[in-house]
Write a structure and sequence with these properties.
The complex is a heterodimer of chains A (373) and B (295). By secondary structure, chain A is of the alpha+beta class. Helices cover 23% and strands 34% of the residues of chain A. Chain A has helices at residues 51-59, 101-111, 116-129, 145-157, 175-192, 203-209, 227-232, 237-242; strands at residues 12-19, 28-35, 40-44, 66-71, 74-75, 87-89, 163-167, 195-200, 212-217, 220-225, 247-257, 260-265, 268-274, 284-289, 295-296, 302-313, 317-324, 327-335, 348-353, 359-361. In chain A, helix 2 crosses helix 3 (116-129), helix 2 (101-111) packs parallel to helix 4 (145-157) and helix 3 packs across helix 4 (145-157). Chain A is elongated and about 75 Å long. Chain B has a domain at 83-256: Orthogonal Bundle (MetI-like fold). Helices cover 77% and strands 0% of the residues of chain B. Chain B is built from 12 helices and no strands. The two termini of chain B are 33 Å apart. Classes of the chains: A alpha+beta (373), B mainly alpha (295). Chain A binds chain B through residues 59-61, 80-83, 85-88, 90-92, 94-98, 107-108, 111-112, 139, 141-145, 148, 155-156, 159, 165, and chain B through 186, 188-189, 191-200, 202-203, 206-207, 210-211, 289-294.
Amino acid sequence: MNGSTRGGDGYVVFDDVQKSYDGETLVVKRLNLAIERGEFVTMLGPSGSGKTTCLMMLAGFETPTHGSIRLDGRPIDNIAPHKRGIGMVFQNYALFPHMSVAENLAFPLEVRGIDKTDRQSRVQRALDMVRMSGFENRRPAQLSGGQQQRIAVARALVFDPELVLMDEPLGALDKQLREEMQYEIKHIHEELGVTVVYVTHDQSEALTMSDRIAVFNDGQIQQLADPSTLYERPDNSFVAQFIGENNRLVGTVDRVDADVAYVDVNGTVVTALPVNCGDGGGNQTQLSIRPERISLGDAGDNVVDAEVKELIYLGDHIRCRLDVLGNDEFIVKMPNAASANAPTIGATTKVTWSTEDCRALDPAAIAAPKGTT
Amino acid sequence: MATLPAYTTPAQKIWHYGLRVLCGFIFFFLVAPIVAIIPLSFSAGDFFTYTEGMLTFQPDAYSLKHYEDALTNPEWTTAIWNSFRIAIPATIIAVTLGTLAAIGLSQRHVPGRRAIMAILISPMIVPLIISALGMFFFYAPLGNFMQDTLRLPQDLVEFIKIVLAHAVLGIPFVIITVTATLVGFDQSLTRAAASMGAGPLRTFFKVQMPLILPGVISGALFAFITSFDEVVVITIIGSQKVQTLPWQMFVGLREQISLTILAVATMMVGFSIILLTTIELLRRRNERLRGLTPS
């Protein structure tokens, strides 16, 4: 994969792009991003992080204040939105209410001067793809949310664009339908090989669908990586907190020896993997440990005392809320195994984790909002 | 009538029935004057009174002779023709400019939207007599210019002046109705059209226009009625050549109190009812198109 800094090459390239609406605050700060042909890239972040603005700049509905965007090697800053040939799925679907489903799908083909028979067969093909054939003569208002969503996807793909943008397309659907549509969109992407740029604030959606995820916060990409890297090896505390569930311990770096950071958390020194905590002593740091990487027991790199605060039975596992080193929101997931050494509320026990599963990150996100779980 | 719930206090009961009586009076005062003229227009007599025969429903006390007069007397037929000849182009100008203005003013980035809107709406708010006087002074040199320099015939110049004046009076109605429909118009539809490759013109005619059409048409009807009813401006800047129906009625009332006026008035009432029915049907069609939108 080509370098993603300072533009580089790729099918879609954001080169040092900045955007400001009022001329003072930057909504997007120095964005560099290269997307390969055929890739499914998700822009993930909380609302106001600049992700939708980036998508709108790519579609041509907003103009960058600085920098340039390239599509297939050509700068597109001087190309009007309707000449970019980019398909788009909108958050509210944006189906034309006065046209039938078939007329909606034929619209982009009509614009391109494709003759009537060809138009019909392509509309049919697109409807088959989203499993909506038979609905040609319905009006959008006569369809359910999920059906409208499928038509919107079909309409964005019917004219065979090489790039499709999706702006939180599943936001209005209920949970079950959303998951179903996630797989469906993913399969369509794999089948057609189109490049997809997807915007969402739902981290599980991003993890399910994407080849790579760009985590946005504060107008900047915090980390650009594939889902597993993002989850297992977050670069900073924002990403650790935003993606998945995360246990935080705030401490001070004592010293960093080779690949091990010794961190003082409320008087107890634990070992962690130094990521971006600085290499000197005395730095504030935030330790990040995933709940499933912690076990109850007394054998491991780090063994600390814990007091059981709450047990939540979830069928396949038990969520155990503990007080560990002064943090009483410390979560451990225990598999619901037959060998019941199940702790009881109020009991003291020991928890353990290995050094490389505990990442010493910047302290910045201590006051940051909790990630969606 | 729904029964009142058991907890209704006497005061609420009085209010409940009092409101109905009040509403009855309001309707009566709105409709009675219009209804009163209709039977009289069928009178066989020539005076503005209900004759003995009419009150006792004698068939020979009624006739259509005033309608015949209205539709054959050149004074009235010219006036009818003039009314349409002026109202139609004035409506077309008002609808075109008003719709474009409403769309422009619905864009968030237009500077001074409120001020521009206020100026465009002002002909509706400023007393008509003041607008008319202003137009008189403003159009006089314009008329002279068209007549002397462009060498246009006087009839045409008179006609252009009235059409322009009536268009100005109609524009606010179009702006208001179109702006109201645009509030419900989803701007992402125009973006969607652009993403599919449609240029601004195609997007306007294929996507935006069909959806705001009901607003455009009701605006057009209001603009048409404005011109069709208008008597102040036409009296001040019009001339013999461009007498419209209201003008003719006004003059008729002053000079020869003829029941033909009432026949014309009845026809105008009928015409207005047809127009209003059209508005209502269009509104329902629009609701059918946009209705049922899932939450």
